[in-house]
């Protein structure tokens, strides 16, 4: 008797169906967040305890998913709520110390664990004031230094990025005798100096960053000492001097005529005075 082909196919199908429990397999979960292929930007002023992001994942079998963060270093900064996938910040970020983090997150369907690395970029905030270098600042210049002469340069840097890291200099309060180049910090004589009038200037340099919302600034002192130049002739007092000398007088001696002269220059007068601008 000839076998019915339909019966054999049906038999095979019944055979495969009987094996199906053995052939079932778990399908893996996978992350849905776009940033696993790109990056997350978190600003450095994000507060501890704030929610940074939420992990999203799907499981083809609709298994219950458990989220986590992998590694000791990443766990210092981030905590993940296992059921919801919400990511919390655990530690303050500082872009000036660490500007980028590689963080590995995990999702599990309780049979398999899938991991994905996220590149976290720490965004800059203007949180550093300028810092002056090579202090204290002091310079000695002769009183005949011509106007327009650069006499000193101050230098400050700022660790922030962009305008928040760009320093502008000024005198605070402004000086009548000296100017400072805002961008370069070069101090220049602005008008003629006179040791006999003012021997020293104490100026305050203000370095401020250019952040438009919350600029930060720092002050530094600049001491300018004016040195003397022999720029004044002696002045004779009690003029005119006259006396009679008789022909039989003894030779002229110092006791014969006493002339006092006053040198008005620096080292003879005003020795103990201080003048400040
Ligand atoms: Ca699964
Ligand atoms: Ca910082
Ligand atoms: Ca900063
Ligand atoms: Ca700054």
From TrEMBL:
GO terms for cellular component: cell-cell junction; plasma membrane. The keyword Calcium applies. Its main location: membrane. GO terms for molecular function: calcium ion binding. It is found in: Membrane. Gene3D superfamilies: Cadherins. InterPro entries: Cadherin-domain_protein (IPR050971), Cadherin-like_dom (IPR002126), Cadherin-like_sf (IPR015919), Cadherin_CS (IPR020894). Residues 42-132, 133-236 form the Cadherin domain. Keywords: Calcium, Cell adhesion, Membrane, Repeat, Signal, Transmembrane, Transmembrane helix. Residues 1-24 form the signal peptide. The keyword Repressor does not apply. GO terms for biological process: homophilic cell adhesion via plasma membrane adhesion molecules. It comes from the Eukaryota. This is Cadherin domain-containing protein. It comes from Chiloscyllium punctatum.
């Amino acid at each position: 008797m000839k076998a019915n082909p339909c019966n054999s196919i049906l038999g095979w199908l019944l055979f495969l169906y009987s094996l199906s429990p053995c052939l079932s397999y778990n399908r893996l979960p996978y992350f849905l967040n776009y940033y696993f292929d790109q990056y997350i930007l978190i600003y450095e002023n994000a507060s501890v305890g704030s929610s940074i992001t939420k992990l999203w994942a799907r499981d083809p079998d609709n298994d219950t998913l458990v989220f986590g963060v992998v590694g000791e270093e990443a766990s210092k900064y981030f905590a993940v709520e296992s059921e919801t996938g919400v990511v919390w910040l655990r530690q303050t970020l500082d872009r000036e110390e660490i500007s980028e983090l590689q963080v590995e997150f995990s999702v599990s369907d309780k049979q398999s664990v899938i991991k994905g690395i996220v590149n976290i970029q720490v965004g800059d905030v203007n949180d550093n004031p300028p810092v002056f270098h090579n202090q204290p600042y002091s310079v000695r210049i002769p009183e005949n230094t011509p106007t327009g002469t650069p006499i000193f340069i101050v230098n400050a840097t700022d660790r922030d990025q962009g305008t928040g890291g760009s320093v502008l200099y000024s005198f605070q309060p402004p000086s009548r005798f000296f100017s400072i180049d805002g961008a370069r910090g070069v101090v220049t004589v602005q008008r003629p100096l006179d040791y006999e009038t003012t021997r020293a200037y104490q100026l305050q340099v203000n370095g401020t960053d250019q952040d438009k919302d919350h600029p930060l600034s720092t002050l530094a002192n600049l001491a300018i000492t004016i040195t003397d130049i022999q720029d004044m002739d002696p002045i004779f007092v009690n003029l005119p001097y006259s006396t009679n000398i008789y022909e039989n007088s003894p030779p002229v001696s110092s006791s014969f005529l006493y002339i006092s002269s006053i040198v008005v220059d620096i080292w003879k007068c005003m020795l103990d005075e201080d003048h400040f601008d």
